[in-house]
Design goal:
This protein is of the alpha+beta class and 461 residues long. The chain folds into 2 domains: 225 residues, Orthogonal Bundle (MetI-like fold); 118 residues, no CATH class. The protein contains 13 helices and 8 strands. A 5-stranded antiparallel sheet has the order 1-2-8-5-6, with no helix packed on it. Helix 12 runs antiparallel to helix 13. It comes from Streptomyces pratensis (strain ATCC 33331 / IAF-45CD). One of its GO terms (cellular component) is plasma membrane. Keywords: Cell membrane, Membrane, Transmembrane, Transmembrane helix, Transport.
């Protein structure tokens, strides 16, 4: 019997070493081209639903918007570039473009910087996790809810708006507010307007003759809580005494220029004695309205300075034409600083600690470590946050629509809001609205291209 040796003539070559006969078939007789084609077919089958949705929800609206932007308001006639010309000639749209530029420059920058600061500082405190949770919590609130919150925060009335309540509290701490705004004398009273909001006596005063300084115009409920019933002043030596009181009897029945039992003294009212244009003496009315001036006030005119009657400080007009855009940007930063902080903190956790410690060993202080090592190494993460927020603010709509009142909505206008206002309503112009949409697309494309290039560059590392 003949036994075939390895490699001998009687042995068949292994299956994977068989010569290619040119038929394109490998092991088992399957075609490699058939396998590749099958894989492409399966991949196309899986991608087809996504491609259909992408075309229906993204590509078709973009193409149709570009087409519609060249038609007139009715959509039946060709308008050429008239709709695009309106973008640069209409004052309202120009304001929207200007505000969008302000948003793109400041909102992402401030949110990113705050996120960086929060991320770095929370590494140094034991309750950093709790702080991150608090800062990130506004992200769980919808734009609509955040807009309603800040509409109340920015209310003009201090008793309703938190921002103005704080502003008024700080102001009144360093500058005492007026006690009797809108108080004034009647024609029958011995006082007249003295200019600049002050009041002066019609005649000079004399020592030994009590002076009456009655006023009206103060709501009894707004009187000082410790005000007492007014007392008629009595003559006192060489000095000048007088009474300043609210010449109004609740329920009626009082007499003008007469201190009635139910009338209250104007506690804290400042009284100046003016002689030859100079203030020679000053006094303050007590709880019962009585005041006393020295003998040097003899022969002078008594003046109630305007500081007694100035309007109380009511805070800042946050939603006025000049501050409405910064105010809304502040609400956006409140929401998105937590988003920036979380992403930057994740990048910060991945930094090689040995580099930071080596820099400290070499004598670098914390600011130098932060500026020369931490920030440059976080540059990719900072770019992600900044670009994401820039794309986000280009289409900002909710906050502006909710927070800005009707009186200042034109001053806070942005392109997305103008797109809504132009495209809907009784006087809608879809041609101009489509042109605004195309403009927004053109503004977003450079940012997205930058982001794509950055991602490809990171992928090649």
């Amino acid at each position: 019997m003949t036994t075939a040796t390895a490699g001998g003539a009687g042995s068949a070559p292994p299956a994977d070493k068989r010569p290619d006969t040119g038929t394109g078939k490998g092991t088992g007789g399957r075609s490699r081209g058939g396998v590749t084609g099958t894989r492409r077919t399966v991949a196309a089958a899986f991608l087809l639903p996504a491609l259909v949705l992408l075309g229906a929800l993204v590509v078709y609206p973009i193409v149709y918007s570009v087409y519609r932007s060249f038609l007139d308001q009715s959509g039946t006639g060709f308008a050429g570039l008239d709709n695009y010309e309106a973008l640069f000639t209409d004052a309202t749209i120009r304001t929207a473009v200007k505000n969008n530029a302000i948003w793109v420059v400041f909102a992402p920058t401030v949110a990113t910087v705050l996120g960086l600061i929060f991320a770095v500082l929370t590494e140094r405190i034991r309750w950093g996790t709790a702080f991150k949770l608090i800062v990130f919590m506004p992200m769980a609130i919808s734009m609509l809810a955040a807009g309603i919150i800040f509409r109340l925060v920015y209310e003009q009335a201090p008793e309703r708006g938190v921002a103005n309540a704080v502003a008024v509290g700080v102001h009144d701490t360093f500058a005492e507010s007026s006690g009797f705004p809108k108080a004034h004398p009647l024609p029958v009273h011995p006082l007249k307007a003295g200019g600049g909001g002050s009041f002066v006596t019609k005649e000079t005063v004399r020592a030994g003759q009590p002076v009456s300084l009655p006023l009206v115009g103060v709501v009894p409920a707004k009187m000082p809580g410790d005000a007492e019933p007014a007392k008629a002043a009595t003559a006192s030596g060489d000095g000048i005494t007088g009474t300043a009181w609210l010449d109004f009897t609740k329920g009626g029945g009082g007499k003008p220029n007469v201190v009635d039992p139910k009338e209250l003294g104007l506690k804290g009212l400042t009284v100046e004695a003016v002689k030859d244009g100079k203030v020679v003496a000053t006094a303050t009315a007590g709880a019962d309205g009585v005041f006393t001036l020295p003998a040097s006030a003899d022969g002078s005119l008594l003046r109630l300075p305007a500081d007694n009657f100035r309007e109380p400080y009511n805070g800042v007009d946050w939603l006025g034409p000049s501050l409405v855009t910064p105010g809304i940007i502040g609400s956006y930063v409140w929401m998105w600083a937590g988003f920036a902080m979380v992403l930057i903190a994740a990048g910060l956790a991945g930094l090689p600690r040995e580099l930071l410690e080596a820099a400290r060993v070499d004598g670098a202080n914390e600011w130098q470590v932060f500026r020369r090592i931490t920030v440059p190494m976080l540059a990719p993460v900072l770019a992600v946050v900044l670009v994401t927020l820039m794309i986000n603010v280009l289409k900002i709509f909710d906050l502006v629509f909710i927070i800005a009142p009707g009186s200042s909505q034109d001053d806070a206008n942005v392109l997305a809001l103008q797109l809504y206002r132009t495209s809907f309503g009784t006087d809608a112009d879809l041609g101009v609205g489509s042109a605004i949409a195309v403009l927004l697309l053109l503004l977003v494309i450079p940012v997205m291209l930058f982001n794509v290039r950055r991602i490809r560059k990171e992928g090649r590392r």
